[in-house]
Amino acid sequence: MYNFEFTKPKTVEEAATAMAAEGAQALGGGQTLIPTMKQRLASPEVLVSMTDIEGMVGVAAHGNTLTIGGATTHAQVAADAADLFPGLAALASGIGDPAVRNRGTIGGSLANNDPAACYPAGALGSGATVTTNKRDITADDYFQGMFETALDEDEIITSVSFPIPEKANYQKFEQPASRFALVGVFAAKFNDGVRVAVTGASNVGVHRWTEAETALNSNFSESAIDGMSGNANDMIADLHGSAKYRAHLVGVLTRRAVAGCG
């Protein structure tokens, strides 16, 4: 490691001021940032911790919306959202291992937008809204490619609001070493339509599978998407799986997610 400054603000306003400093970087649970710093792939001069800010931790329901503070850990989401939004709670319970779940935060995951992370699929598949210290950003506008988001450099994710669907389920085919998604699919059925989000598979990062959504809007059942698969031309190909393999998994896991909604 190397020398850097560390600050732990108590309010969003204090955090925003700290983030305005040159070389400042927001720190959630540090599950991605700290290893990246150790490898010298990132060298922030100031780490601004988000874990002690009033109002940025917790899970609460307001009508048909579940709001989660940006500094809430995966473990807390898994526990506190279980009765309110079981599909999202199950997603959170399958992230990493207990150490990761007790340190990693939803805001940190969404800000990093790893192309194989689970939360982006949950947020996009739910049609969530990301709230920052400056504005509200719909999930459809927020995710902009691998590790790319609509966030400005000094923006802080203060909370994420999830419309609660009638049914939802997340299915993940894990990369066994990292427990990231080789492919992950989040399917959610609302009274006005179906959303299907795919993570881990595509060169464009997390994305909606609109062809499956169209089929499922007509008939929300596994049979509606029998024989369908992702577009292999858009899929990642690496030592863990070919593009064709990932495209096949997209179809398989979507059918499992739909079945899991039953």
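the 2nd protein, sequnce then structure:
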Amino acid sequence: MVPDIFVEVVEVFKDRFTAKEICECFEIPRSTYYRWKRSVNQKIPEFHQLVINICKQLSHRVGHRKVREILWKDHQIKKNRKTVQKVMQKYEIQCRVKVKRQKYIAGESKIIVSNLLKQDFKAEKPNQKWVTDITYLPYGPKMLYLSTIMDLYNNEVIAYKISDSQHVDFVLETLREACNGRETHEVKLHSDQGAQYTSYAFQALAKENGITTSMSRKGNCFDNAVIESFHSSLKSEEFAAQFRATLTTTIVIEKVVNYMYYYNYIRPFSKLNCHSPVEYRTVAA
């Protein structure tokens, strides 16, 4: 939520609702609202406004070091990088830092298996080849993570989970959902070498369900290109117009749920003779 817009919303509806009720509706702490209100009412120093304008022009995609360089190059203003950083922190206009995936999980064994898929993304029947991955959802007030499992037969998303943690239980729940009601003893399940997939718990659950696991070569995203492409499409098609933390956590989750339904039941694919994944599976059955 953009601070000045939220403050304006509260002002517009303050005769009908209390600030507390509006904050609860948007899942924004009251302390945050009053801090935003104080900052909006304060006169912004000229230098601060210049930093804000630079960040806004660059869609908040650059850090304080780059802003410092622009200040010198375009405005001949020389400032210490820490000064610029403090201004950006004050107005919450820092660039979004890409969160690195965990490289290990405390107490878990690390099991790496061979790449059995070898970029052969064609499947002759359902439940023959599955692919899975985790992606980030940086669109709300806190970072969320999406775990997805897709059947390569018709590119149908057969299971997904959303969480605010990347703990191994996150992918275990996704795998259990995918296995529920399906024959899995011929499945090859391909993933990257993320800590969740190399964990003993994940490998044991796959083996328990008769699934043979496969993993991408380290640092090679093309080995899992289909699921990577899907996650990219979800972000570009469902969240392209969104910017920074402009949505509540509830709305982010709703948008993912709606997209999953659209993708599985409505969106036509050329490779499926213009059928949706579920429609193609139904027709072919």
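The first helix runs from residue 3 to 13. Residues 3-90 form one domain.
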